[in-house]
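REQUEST FORM: STRUCTURE PREDICTION
Request ID: SP-0412
Submitted by: Lab K.M.
Chain count: 1
Length (residues): 430
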Amino acid sequence: MLTNKKNRRDRVANLEKSQILDPEKVKRDQKRKRKVVALSVLAAITGLLAAAFAAFLIVGAIGKANLRSNVIAAPKLENAPVVIELQPTEEESAGWKEGWVKYNGQIYAYNEDILTFLVMGIDKNRDVKEVEEGTNGGQADALFLVVLNPHDNSLSVIGINRNTMTDISVYDDNGAYVNTIKAQIAVQHGFGNGVEESCEYQVNAVQHLFYEMPVHVYTPEHNAYPYNYMIGDSSQRKEAVDYLKTAIEMGKEMGAEYTLISTGHAENTISRRQIQERLVETLRELAEYAQQIQEPVLLETLTHFETNVCTNANDLQEVLEMVDSQYLYGMCDVVVPSIEGESVMDYFMKLGDRCRHLHLVDCDGNSETHVIPGDGELPLPELLEEIQHFGYHDTATIELVTAYIREPYVYAKRAHDRVRQMMLEGKGGC
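STATUS: Completed
RESULT:
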C-alpha cells in the first residue's frame, strides 16, 4: 500500500514538472490519450453492432425457415365454398383451366403460394399469459389479416371489424366443446387459455368468415376526430378522405357489397351553405373513388344529437341528387326518423331504389339510444310488414352499440331471435 501511494505521488510530481518545463508536450500527450480511448470505445461499439446484426440475421433466417415450415397452405379452390358470380363464355370455356374463377367480369387463378397472417390485439392491459379458466382468454378487439404474395412481394392488410357477426365455437371451463353460436368475432378468442388455444380458435373463426360468410356492409369508424371530414381545415379533411378511401378498399377486399359512411358533426361557426359545400365536395371525391374500384358507398343519416349535417330523408335525397353518382346510395337507421319526427317509409318513398340498407333496432323515442328490438317504443313488427309490402328486399343490420358491450354475444343472439320470431309470425320481413 505504501509503495502504491509513493508511485502515485511520483506520477503527480512528474506531471507537474512536465507542465512547467514543456506544457505543449503535456497537451499533446493528453490529446493522444483521449484519441486512443475514443478509438477503443468506437471499436467496441462497432463490434457490438456487428454482433447484434449477425444475431439478427441468424434469428431472421431461423424465423423465416420456421415460418415457411409451419405455414398451412390455403385450401384448393375446388374444395373451397367459392360462389362464382359469372359463368365463362363459350370462347373462354375453350381455354378454361381447373381452379379458375370468373368474378365481376375478371378471370382469376387461385394462388396457392400466398402467405396469410392474422394479427390480433387482445383487450388486456398486461402481458398475455395462460389463464386457468378456459373462457377467460380475452377478446380480440383488433383483427388484421395480412396477405403476402411472394411472387410480386405485394402486401395487403384487411381490417376485420371486431363486431362482425359470424359463427364462433363455445367451450366450457374444461375446454370441452359446447356448441356453435352467432356472435361478434372478437368473442371467439375468449373461449380458450389466452395463448395458443385462443389463437387457434380465433384463426378458425376468421377462416370460416372469409370462406363461408358473405359481408354485405363494411362500416369504418370515422365520426370523431381526426377522421370526421366535416370539421377542421382542408388538411384534416384530406386526411379523413384518405382514411375513408382506404376503408372503401378494405370493404372491397372483404367482399362487402357496400361500405357505409355517415357525416359526423360539422362546426357550429360555419354557415349551412358552407356545410353543404364541404359535404358535397367530400362525397363526390369518395363516390369517384368508389366507382374507380367498383365498391359502392352508403350514406347514413344521424339524429340531431349526433350531427348537424344530414338528419332526415329530405337531406339525404338532396345530397344524393347533388352528387349524382351511381356509386353513392342512401340507407335508413329506423331510430333516426322516429327521433326527427318523420316516417320510416319516407326514406323508401323519396329514395326509391337508392335506399339499399337498413339499421334495424329499437329506441326510447326521446334520444339516439339504440336498444334491442322489442325493448323500445318502435312498432317493429308493423314496420317490417310495411317495408316488405313496399317491395324492399335488400339487407338489414341489427345495430347494437355500447350499452351491450359487456355481454355482446348474449344480447346479439336475443336481438336476432326476436327479429326472426317477428318474421316467422308473418308480420313482415325483408
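NOTES: The CA atoms of residues 301 and 310 lie 5 Å apart.
Reviewed by: T.R.
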